[in-house]
């Protein structure tokens, strides 16, 4: 009754009981009423959040590299640069990625359907090294060599909460980076520098896209 919710003063849906990491009772359309569907949404958010954290960090770090003269492309040019400078042609890269990601995603799907089943030695003989505490958190000696998920239960819960919060922030950040590029044709550091130089005249209200100006 006292847990924080996204809409203070309104009770969360019955199917969100506060046990999930990052659960603030947000499901206005009741999309997660069916337990199995809710479990899949949890896994989908985890994976998207983790990729978004990698993406947001990559966008910022490559932009910094471009500014300090390391020759890195801005994120919106990175794909073109890879295709132009790589000795491997794009169709080969694409097919290789599809096979590798398809294999990894298939293993993840099997683990979702039967948690722990992928630590069966089918990948180079690894067994317990791939088994985690719960679905979506691989753990094991291979993925959690520091034992962060196998120590204090309260600390493990805290780590899960922080991860999902950072993942959600990263997803919004990636959306913002894409929107800003569409509006200005520049990367995030250039956008930030322009705004800091003239905050009153360079902001979301003046780019002509966020708030269209006739």
UniProtKB/TrEMBL annotation:
Subcellular localization(s) per the UniProt record: Plastid, Chloroplast thylakoid membrane
Keyword flag Protease: no
PANTHER family: CHLOROPHYLL A/B BINDING PROTEIN (PTHR21649)
Record has Ribosomal protein as a keyword: no
Record's keyword terms, sorted: Chlorophyll, Chloroplast, Chromophore, Photosynthesis, Photosystem I, Photosystem II, Plastid, Thylakoid
Full protein name: Chlorophyll a-b binding protein, chloroplastic
Superkingdom field: Eukaryota
SUPFAM superfamilies the UniProt entry points to: Chlorophyll a-b binding protein
Family membership: Belongs to the light-harvesting chlorophyll a/b-binding (LHC) protein family.
Organism: Volvox africanus
Function in brief: The light-harvesting complex (LHC) functions as a light receptor, it captures and delivers excitation energy to photosystems with which it is closely associated.
Sequence intervals crossing the membrane: none
Database matches in InterPro entries: Chloro_AB-bd_pln (IPR001344), Chloroa_b-bind (IPR022796)
């Amino acid at each position: 009754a006292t847990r924080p919710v996204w809409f203070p003063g309104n009770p969360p849906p019955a199917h969100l009981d506060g046990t999930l990491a990052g659960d603030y009772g947000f499901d206005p359309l009741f999309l997660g009423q069916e337990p199995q569907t809710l479990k899949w949404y949890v896994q989908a958010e985890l994976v998207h959040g983790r990729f978004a954290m990698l993406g947001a960090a990559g966008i910022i770090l490559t932009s910094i590299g471009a500014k300090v003269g390391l020759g890195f492309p801005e994120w919106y040019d990175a794909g073109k640069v890879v295709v132009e400078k790589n000795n491997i042609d794009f169709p080969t890269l694409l097919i290789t990625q599809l096979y590798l990601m398809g294999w990894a995603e298939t293993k993840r799907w099997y683990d979702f359907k039967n948690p722990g089943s992928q630590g069966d030695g089918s990948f180079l003989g690894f067994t317990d090294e791939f088994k985690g505490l719960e679905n979506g958190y691989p753990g094991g000696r291979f993925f959690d060599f520091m034992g962060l998920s196998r120590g204090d239960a309260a600390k493990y819960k805290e780590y899960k909460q922080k991860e999902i919060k950072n993942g959600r922030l990263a997803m919004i950040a990636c959306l913002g980076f894409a929107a800003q590029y569409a509006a200005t044709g520049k990367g995030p550091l250039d956008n930030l520098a322009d705004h800091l130089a003239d905050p009153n005249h360079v902001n979301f209200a003046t780019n002509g896209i966020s708030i269209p100006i006739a």
